[in-house]
Design a protein that fits this description.
Layout: H1 3-21, H2 27-32, H3 38-44, E1 47-52, H4 59-68, H5 70-74, E2 78-79, E3 87-93, E4 99-106, E5 112-119, H6 123-149
Helix pairs in contact: 3-6, 4-6
């Protein structure tokens, strides 16, 4: 075997090994996965972890507002202190402005289920608005499935 042929063979073997160990999945594995749609996730998650990136809006404020809503218990939802909950709600604040942003992400899939922005004079008011908006967003899916089953 000539040197260029050996080098080509070695490069091909390395490429095959790297592909197998780099986390690249074959088509068979991908077909076997059960993927949930965002709508299915919104109807089925049960635990929520609230994380704030600002000291102005404490996680307890949003958690408390969520728990005040009558739908929260009816849907079987629970606030968790475990960061590995089904979904994570993140709150942030734009310094110098009255904008508070939020997002709700499904942990296992990384799918963003809700995002938004509220305008409030302080973190407590922002947390109240965020909690109500999240319940309204979840209701679009939970209440729709209740109506279909009737």
């Amino acid at each position: 075997m000539s040197l260029p042929v050996r080098l080509t063979l070695v490069v091909m073997v390395i490429c095959v090994l790297l592909a197998n160990f780099s986390g690249v999945q074959s088509d068979e594995t991908k077909q076997g996965e059960v993927k949930q749609t965002p709508a299915e996730i919104m109807r089925s998650f049960t635990t929520i972890y609230v994380h704030s990136k600002t000291w102005l809006a404490k996680p307890e404020f949003v958690a408390g507002q969520l728990q005040k809503e009558k739908e929260f218990d009816a849907w079987g939802l629970a606030i968790s202190n475990n960061p590995n909950a089904d979904v994570i709600v993140e709150i942030d604040h734009q310094p110098g402005w009255f904008y508070y942003t939020y997002s709700m992400t499904h942990q296992a899939s990384g799918i963003v289920l809700a995002t938004g922005k509220v305008t409030a004079a302080d973190g407590k008011l922002a947390s109240t608005q965020i909690g109500k908006k999240l319940i309204k967003r979840i209701a679009q899916y939970r209440n729709a499935s209740d109506k279909k089953s009737e």
